[in-house]
Each structure stands twice: as C-alpha cells, then as structure tokens.
Amino acid sequence: MVYVLIYMGLYLLYSIPTLQKVKRLDRNMSVEERDGIVHDLPKRWSRGIMKRTGSNVHIKGQEAIPAGPVLFVANHSGDFDVPVLLGSIPKPFGFISKMEVKKLPIISGWMEMISCIFIDRKNRRQAVLSIREGGMVLKNGHSLLIFPEGTRNKGGALKEFKTGGIRMAKDAGVPIVPVVIQGTADMFEKQRRGIKPCDIYVEVLPSLSSAYVADKDVKELSIEVQGIIQAALDEMRIAA
Fold first, then answer.
1. Has keyword Transferase (predicted)?
2. What CATH number should be reported for the domain holding residue 97?
C-alpha cells in the first residue's frame, strides 16, 4: 500500500508542468480533441496505480459506448473504483466527487480540468446547484460518471440509488450507460491491512438512449438502472 501511495504522490508532482499546459489549451478546440488531450495523463496515472497494486483489470462491452456525451452510472464497490474506470473506459469522463477532495492540491486541479463536479451532500442547496452544474457539463459535450449509491458498498449489497445524479442525463438529453465493477473491495476494503492483488472485472452494459431517458420518470429510471446493474452483478458472481 505504501508503494502505491508513494507512486501516486510522486506522479502528481511530476504532472504539474503538464497541468499548467492543459490549462492553456486553445478554447476553440473541439470538446472531443480537448478531452482526449486533458485525460491522457490522468488515464496513464490510473493505469499505473492499478499496475502497482498487482491487480488485473478485465473490461468488456466498451465497444458499444455511444458517441458524444453520456452519463456513466456505476455501482460503488471500493476506493479503487475511480482509477479502475478512468484507466479502462476509453471515453474520457469526469465524475462526481465529495467536496472535501477539492481541498487537495494538484489532484483537485486535475479534477477540475477533466470536468469533475464537487458536491456537498450535507448541504441540500449546494447539492442541487452541483447537479445543475453537472447537467451543463453534459450539455457542453463532456461525459460524466456517477455512483448513485453515494458511498461504497464494500462489495456487499447494492444501496438504493439516489435520483439526483441520474436526473442530469434527463435534463441534458444524453444516454445513460450502466457500468458494473466487481473486485475492488476484495482487493482493498475486505483486507485487514494493505492490498491484495485481485482480478477486477468491468462490464459496460447496453446504453439507454437519450430518447428513452427523456420519456422516463427519474425515480422509475433510477430503479430500472439499479435493476440492470444488480442483474449483471448477479451474473458475474454466478460465473465466478
């Protein structure tokens, strides 16, 4: 675990000149081109983290991700979910993060550059504003990832999906792409100390079109997406 933390810290320091460069990118550049450049280093950093844990990440279904902005919706198994997904999903995306992370130097700068949204779940008014901000990020052509459980389930049963994040897809008129991740809790949360190398599985499921999302009630949509992810998780566990 110490080795992984040292790598993370040193790489962040190494990334400072690149962070300054991406902040100066031409604003007239297309969203797709800009995101490809900005996300390159965070993706390499994420893959480096997973390599140093000794774990292997297996992904399938990524070829069916729609073009254009999408809202990825995933279960939240453990702390390593974000680097696993950042490093393995080919489409660049930002994600929803708790407000406390905004205080971290360098990493918060990178998160702002990849269009992450910071949310204070204890402050309802601020949380609503963050959801609106996320909707604008999607409308502007960037993709986002949410964990609608809110907190890690640590490899246990799925927690009830909150509707706020899913509402962003409906408001922005973008597809929802369910994503299932399994194994990160076995690697870290379920260990008494340190990290245990594991096989981690990611499956990108068929998307729900923007037209379908637009016609659905947000609560019904949230329940449906949770059911899709739960069914896929059950299949993974049976196969294992």
1. yes
2. 3.40.1130
Q: Are 177 and 138 in contact (CB under 8 A)?
A: no
The sheet carrying 199-204 orders its strands as 56-60, 199-204, 176-182, 71-74, 144-146, 94-98, 117-119
What digits encode the pLDDT tens for the residues 66-114? 999 999 999 999 999 999 999 999 999 999 998 889 889 999 999 999 9
Selection from 160, 199, 202 nearest residue 181 by Cα: 202
Q: Is the pTM of this model over 0.85?
A: yes
Rounded CA-CA distance 36/38 in Å is 6
Task: Name the domain count of the chain.
Answer: 1
* Nearest-angstrom CA–CA distance, 55 and 36: 26
For residue 106, is it left (φ>0), alpha (ψ between -120 and 50) or beta?
left
**DSSP run (H or E) holding 180:** strand 176-182
